[in-house]
């Protein structure tokens, strides 16, 4: 008789996951079909605010100022104060990115955004490398573009979060960069400040993992369990690339929502999340 296959234990949950789940349990898990090839559609449509505490009152509208720019900070310094879609030159390529030009002096390049579950983030290394989604909606700018941007000099990272009750929180890191693909886009973080709680420093110095490229510290594949690419450890205190579960609290076999453990816990899927970077020296 052949030996029975080894069954791996489920990945550990973060310590702050509530013991009993309450509230809405709507699960908007996406199918496992591959996402389309990355598209940078510039269709004009109004963008919802990224979430508290981004100023409201003047909704940002996608625009394409003369470019391409080195980054959103360069466009801001050139006098472009409108938030929207800008073309950026990263390495030998030009990519479209959302520039947030009205928050804390502007100059922020949005590298990730979740807001409505319209984009499937449970996808492959290649998609995470080059980027996917729409810069005027849910999207991931791409590991390679982010590496190229942060390799030019010191950057800061701002993480904006919003729960289903409209409560916002932020996490700021005074250093942020990625190593090259040869080191699996390993995360480098500075010191944390903010009111969201620090759910990313546990992932510092960890390589990026996806469903088809497992580089985490766990015996199984965290990206498969948590249904999205991230800088997994064993497994995570945060994953902003998980399944966008509607309503907040959710029931799932594994901890696979869009979560930031120190803000609402690992069993609460956030309504909105965004990651923004900016050069430290403007």
Provide keyphrases for this structure.
282 residues; mainly beta; Gamma Fibrinogen, Chain A, domain 1; 13 strands; globular; protein-macromolecule adaptor activity; Fibrinogen_a/b/g_C_dom; secreted; glycoprotein; Angiopoietin like 6
Q: What's the architecture, going by CATH? A: Alpha-Beta Complex
Total strands: 13
| Series of H and E elements | HEEEHEEHEEEEEHEEE
Number of domains: 1
List low-pLDDT spans: 14-60
Please tell me how large the radius of gyration is: 18 Å
Report the principal-axis shape.
globular
The CATH homologous superfamily is named Gamma Fibrinogen, chain A, domain 1
Helix proportion of residues, in percent? under 10%
CATH class: Alpha Beta
Main location: secreted
InterPro entries: FIB_ANG-like, Fibrinogen-like_C, Fibrinogen_a/b/g_C_1, Fibrinogen_a/b/g_C_dom, Fibrinogen_CS
GO molecular function: extracellular matrix structural constituent; protein-macromolecule adaptor activity
Protein name: Angiopoietin like 6
Please, could you describe this protein's structure?
The chain is mainly β and 282 residues long. The chain has a single domain, classed as Gamma Fibrinogen, Chain A, domain 1 (Alpha-Beta Complex), CATH 3.90.215.10. Helix content is 9%, strand content 22%. The chain is built from 4 helices and 13 strands. The strands form 3 sheets. Strands 1, 2, 3, 4, 5, 6, 7, 10 and 13 form a 9-stranded antiparallel beta sheet that branches. The model is unreliable at 14-60 (pLDDT under 50).
